[in-house]
Amino acid sequence: MNEWKQKLIDYWENIRVNNEKGEKFQVTPMGWRKESHIPYTGDYHPMHVLNLYYPAGWDVSKGVLPTIIDIHGGGWLYGTVDESERYLAWLAAQGYAVMGMSYRLLDETDLSGIISDIYDAMHWLEQFGPDRGFDLEKVLLTGDSAGGHLSGLVACIQKSKDLQAAYGVTPFGFEVGALCVCCPCSEMDRLYIMDKEESEAGRKSAEAYYEMMLGEQGDKAPWKGKMSLSETMRGIKLPPLLLIGSETESLYEQSQLLLQALEKEGQEYETLIWKKEEAVHLQHVFNISHWEWRESLISNRRMLEFFDKAVKKD
User: Fold this and answer.
1) Which of 15, 68, 147, 242 is 20 to 30 A from 82 via CA?
2) Which domains does the chain have, with CATH numbers?
3) Sign of the Cα pseudo-torsion (30, 291, 128, 79, in order)
């Protein structure tokens, strides 16, 4: 394996270990229940599972709930649906039916494989969600960091037969009414996650990311040139989009690049970006990792208000 690809894998493994150490400090919300690790394909792959979250005391006899679909982050190399559980549980406790899925990572597949997994989960929800209480006429799609990229990419693919062909997927049969990206990583040729652009670690790790996303097909991959959101949103009308971020987070440049692309393409969007002087502790994906912080609650409630306005929740 390429030296820098292995360094990326090791980098995210270190984050995984440190996050596990911090688990004991996490705060669990009240007022929710879940269905855990439901397979969304028949191949028994451990990453092909999803979780469903509901308000406590709710069951399908009470009708359907507005739907939130979350795609977790983790640099495309780390994490499962369980990493965001407390955040998803809090969302459910506010009166929503919430789905999150695991997907294969870049140490096992390429970007097309990840998108294929997410679409399999979406088709599962299309088939089984309404009987489980998901109102698929009111859908918010959201994601953080790498999940912000993936949720935006899925929203673009839904609108483009060309992108559907490039990724080898069939569109799911419900509309995404609103899109929210949290500290998104949007530009695949500028993923300076391990260090700054001017450093060797920054440049080499970005190159390794790009190669991993193309996978074994390399430059012949049909999705080459169709990975960054600035590329895939061209000529596409996205759902109303909210970007949540912070000027103090390590990958804030990626949010700025996405805002430039949204403006250039005339997309409908809103922002909630915390200023440096407001909160220096608001690091990458703060509103997911610490849903209980004051700023996180303000941000996440803003997301729900944005969703309700976009789909005219009754």
Assistant:
1) 242
2) 3-311 (3.40.50.1820)
3) negative
